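$ ./design --mode recover --in tokens.txt
reading tokens...
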């Protein structure tokens, strides 16, 4: 009888964890309100492009194929991703350091640090000035200085 009730609690904890991971994944995917389309052409129109870095590497699964990755750099924003054959950028990482780039639920650079807890709850990892939340595939990290969000990093699953 004890084993059955312990298992039920474990199942509840497991279901809660999966639900939380889904919430984090969904938040990260919807978070960058400034991204309306993911074509390279559309992303370049987000603002004045300071730099664009192109890197070509061998595909991990097929060494005879080359993959192209790009980093688009704007004032206070870096977008890094894989360039698909359709010229769509599959997001891998977004780094935000200026309040001009709006995030879902007002979790913006410059917002009070307590906003993170109100929106996402208790972090999975907390180190001095960094709060990290893991979904099943996506991750969000926020960096805090003087009780304000100073930087947000969104990581997207890519294989």
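writing sequence...
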């Amino acid at each position: 009888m004890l084993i059955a009730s312990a298992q039920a609690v474990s199942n509840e904890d497991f279901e809660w964890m999966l639900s939380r991971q889904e919430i984090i994944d969904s938040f990260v995917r919807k978070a960058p309100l400034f991204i309306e389309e993911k074509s390279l052409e559309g992303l370049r129109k987000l603002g004045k492009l300071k730099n664009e870095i192109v890197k070509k590497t061998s595909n991990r699964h097929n060494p005879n194929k080359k993959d192209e990755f790009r980093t688009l750099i704007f004032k206070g924003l870096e977008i890094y991703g894989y360039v698909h054959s359709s010229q769509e950028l599959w997001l891998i990482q977004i780094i935000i350091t200026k309040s001009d780039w709006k995030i879902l639920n007002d979790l913006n650079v410059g917002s009070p640090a307590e906003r993170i807890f109100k929106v996402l709850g208790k972090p999975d990892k907390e180190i001095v000035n960094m709060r990290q939340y893991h979904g099943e595939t996506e991750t969000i990290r926020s960096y805090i200085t003087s009780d304000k969000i100073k930087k947000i990093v969104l990581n997207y699953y890519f294989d």
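exit 0
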